[in-house]
């Protein structure tokens, strides 16, 4: 098992960060890591996700949404052909801080399976998570500033 966690503190309330996170159709405008997501964010639904890790090859996969808690959590599981060869559990968590005026945003991936040592480039993925977290911070904070 291998796990990557990247946190970002965002000067925007969770509802604003959640709104940005779920606007999949706008990802090409701002997201340097997850270039596109197609599908409906609802438990049991399958998404089509395109990622571009920094310095790595792009990849498209079709995970299943396994958790959706309004303004708190979105999680999916992706598999490489056969279960347990290479499984990735991806999670976005939003935690309200400072009386819900700010958000602690977590992006986490947990990899399991025999092919993890070969296929999971932790450094590239961590840089990708960080770039996305910084971009969602910038977009959510700009949205709050524009509405003030």
UniProtKB/TrEMBL annotation:
<protein>
    <submittedName>
        <fullName>Polyketide cyclase/dehydrase</fullName>
    </submittedName>
</protein>
<dbReference type="InterPro" id="IPR019587">
    <property type="entry name" value="Polyketide_cyclase/dehydratase"/>
</dbReference>
<dbReference type="InterPro" id="IPR023393">
    <property type="entry name" value="START-like_dom_sf"/>
</dbReference>
<dbReference type="Pfam" id="PF10604">
    <property type="entry name" value="Polyketide_cyc2"/>
</dbReference>
